[in-house]
């Protein structure tokens, strides 16, 4: 892992010179100035050097695999083999893997986070996937998956899926809860749940539930539940519960006759 980081340094140097318009190897600065190259290489090695203390790996900007934990300022790849912590203060296109532990990035744009528990403080990520909890405090996970709880405190996502899917404040294109799907303040194009789909303040185009669907304040275009569909201070253009239907209804509770 360390050697691959050093190799990336040389590749970066070559690409940088090519980008600057110098296409012949004999014109490259990295070959003209050996002192500059050596200085840059030493700095890069120090930044990427992993220090392993009893299974805990510490590095400034290197990629690392640790038995019990990996801690860094800026890493592009972190992997924890046991029940430990993969911790990154800042990430720019990085990958975190902690299959039995916690993957945590405080700030930045990790490409992918996977673990028992994954969390992003502030930023954006292409994908979060966890066994117990996937969470974002403030940001945009493009896709967020969890076998347990998937939660966004403030932000937006294209797809959120979990046993329980929750957005305290934000927007989502498709929210799917294997049990419950909830939005505190915000909107969804599609909100789907097996037990309860709920929006407290906001709107949805489609709200679907295997048991109960509800909007407290706001509106919904199409609301369908097998047992109970309700809107309080909200407008439902079409409300369906079992075989019952209502159109353009406000403050309505519709319950199916089926048990």
Structural summary, described in words:
This protein is mainly β and 259 residues long. The protein has helices spanning 2-19, 29-32, 34-48, and strands at 51-53, 56-59, 64-66, 69-74, 77-80, 85-92, 95-109, 112-193, 196-209, 212-225, 228-241, 244-255. Strands 1, 2, 3, 4, 5, 6, 7, 8, 9, 10, 11 and 12 form a twelve-stranded mixed beta sheet that branches. It is elongated. The protein starts with a helix and ends with a strand. The model is unreliable at 2-15 and 22-28 (pLDDT under 50).
Q: Helicity level, as a percent range?
A: 10-25%
Radius of gyration: 25 Å
Global outline: elongated
Question: What would you call the structural class?
Answer: mainly beta
Tell how many strands the DSSP assignment holds.
Answer: 12
Q: Low-confidence segments, ≥5 residues, pLDDT <50?
A: 2-15, 22-28
* Mean of residue pLDDT values: 87
Distance between the termini: 59 Å
Strand content: over 45%
**Count of alpha and pi helical runs:** 3
Main attributes of the structure:
12 strands; elongated; 14% helix; single chain; 12-stranded mixed beta sheet; mainly beta; disordered N terminus; 259 residues
List the helices and strands and how they pair.
Layout: H1 2-19, H2 29-32, H3 34-48, E1 51-53, E2 56-59, E3 64-66, E4 69-74, E5 77-80, E6 85-92, E7 95-109, E8 112-193, E9 196-209, E10 212-225, E11 228-241, E12 244-255
Parallel strand pairs: 2-4, 3-5, 4-6, 5-7, 6-7, 7-8, 8-9, 9-10, 10-11
Antiparallel strand pairs: 1-2, 11-12
